[in-house]
Amino acid sequence: MRLNDRFLEAADGTRIAYGVAGSGPALVLTNGLTTTSNFWAALEPLWCEQHTVITWDYPGHGESAPSRTDKGASIEAQPHTLARILDALGIARASHVGFSVGCQVVLEMYRQFPERCSALVTLLGTAEHAIRSTGLWLPAPILSLLLEKTPPAVFEPGFRALAQFANSDLGLALGRRLGLVGSATSEDMRGVLEHFGRLHPATMRTMARSADAHSAFDLLSQLRVPLLIVAGDKDPFAPVDRIGLPMHAAAAGSQLVRLPQGTHTAMLDHAPEIAAAVERFLARSASPKG
């Protein structure tokens, strides 16, 4: 997977990395929290055949610098950065695909810049409160408490130790057992987990807090662009009954695609199905209504 090799400054001066490949109508891929563009490795080549695909890294992620301000690491700040990327590429309007916490970002993009959105895809994520809405084995209130109350002197080394464990054979095996990882190969997961260890803990923590406080659920009933919701029936991060189905019910006219075996790594496990579903959705969205 290529690295994002272009750079610009966010509003607070943070150096942000982005990349572009392919040709055709613009398709923006927005990451989840803790992930970089390598998580799109199985999907991006499929979409590049028909689209100009834009990828980018959040502050403190991938090739981007740590956020210079807490505000710059908020969910609400990310659409401003994305608008700057589109401006730099001379792109007025794009379809936006958000993964995990990226679902909140693309919905917030619509709130702030609706004229720059032609269609939205939420992939394995929620419209609001990313931490408290999870179905992970560790109760959501405990996760929120850890984010809020753990002193930085404890949080940062603890996060580094967790990242190191996650990137071990035992950590990967445990991830599979807990349903966090699906059928993705160890080789595919190594790239994802290696990045986990390179995150900037303080920036990631600020973004996680913001994602837990943020809600764009109110937008679902107000959308004036097509919306595709992709949910994994075995995804503990975004349980379909708690997240996918309520989002579909709230967004009149939205489309819902369920992956019966989909976990939170479905982008790696089920890339052909996801790519085809998104292509069909975008083709229908672009067709004249008659």
Structural features, described:
The protein is an alpha/beta fold. It is built from eleven helices and eight strands. The radius of gyration is 18 Å and the shape is globular.
Gap between N and C termini, in Å?
41 Å
Question: Strand percentage, roughly?
Answer: 15-25%
Unreliable segments (pLDDT under 50, ≥5 consecutive)?
none
Report on the biggest sheet. Answer: 8 strands, mixed
Q: Summarize model confidence as the mean pLDDT.
A: 91
How does the helix and strand content classify structurally?
alpha/beta
Number of helices: 11
How much helical structure, as a percent, in the residues?
40-55%
Radius of gyration: 18 Å
What's the total number of strands?
8
Shape: globular
Biggest sheet, spatial arrangement of strands: 1-2-4-3-5-6-7-8
Q: Which H/E pattern describes the elements?
A: EEEHEHEHEHHHHHEHEHH
Keywords for this structure?
290 residues; alpha/beta; eight-stranded mixed sheet; globular
Which SSEs are present, and which pair or pack?
Elements: E1 6-9, E2 15-22, E3 26-30, H1 44-48, E4 52-56, H2 78-89, E5 94-99, H3 102-112, E6 117-123, H4 140-149, H5 152-166, H6 169-177, H7 186-196, H8 201-213, E7 227-232, H9 240-250, E8 255-259, H10 266-269, H11 271-286
Parallel strand pairs: 3-4, 3-5, 5-6, 6-7, 7-8
Antiparallel strand pairs: 1-2, 2-4
